[in-house]
Amino acid sequence: MPTIRVSKPLTQKIKGILPLVETVMEKKLEFNDLVELILQQGLDTMLASIMGAVDADSFLKSFSQLGQRDPSTAYGYVAQLLRSGTGVQKEKLQEAKKMLGVHKP
Fold first, then answer.
1. Separation of alpha carbons 76 and 74, rounded Å
2. Contact 63/74 with Cβ under 8 angstroms?
3. By the 8 A CB rule, do 54 and 62 touch?
4. Which of these, 84, 45, 102, 55, lies nearest to 94 by C-alpha position?
5. Burial of 76 by CB count in 10 Å (0-12 exposed, 13-18 middle, 19+ buried)?
6. Rounded Cα distance, 55 and 71, in Å
């Protein structure tokens, strides 16, 4: 596992937020688990900030380019989403079936 070095003030902030996070999560966390959680949340937030500003057409074009670059990952992910069965995915799956000419018996 790589070593990540942070300043003392930031280390104190991380240690300081531990009780708050443990209260919200209702479980004890090791320091490294807390750091991993913070990093993951930060990465997710950064991606959402960047991608949230992208309009739907640009996002679709980008996803299409990803499909050309790495088809099994991109299309496999969409298939996995459709199989997840949540309301929106069920609607999209039915739309895709209609588009492909698949009709319920």
1. 6
2. yes
3. yes
4. 102
5. exposed
6. 22
Q: Predicted confidence band at 104 (pLDDT cuts at 50, 70, 90)?
A: low
Residue ranges per structural domain of the chain: 8-51, 56-99
Phi, psi for 55 (deg, rounded to 5): -70, 160
Distances (CA, A) of 81 to 20, 63, 78: 33, 14, 5
Q: Report pLDDT digits (tens) over 20-68.
A: 999 999 999 999 999 999 999 999 999 999 988 889 899 899 999 999 9
The answer to whether 59 and 38 have CB atoms below 8 angstroms apart is no
Q: Token pair for residue 10? A: 């930031």
Longest Cα separation, the chain: 66
Instruction: Read off the pLDDT of residues 1-18 as tens digits, 9 standing for 90 and up.
Output: 788 899 999 999 999 999
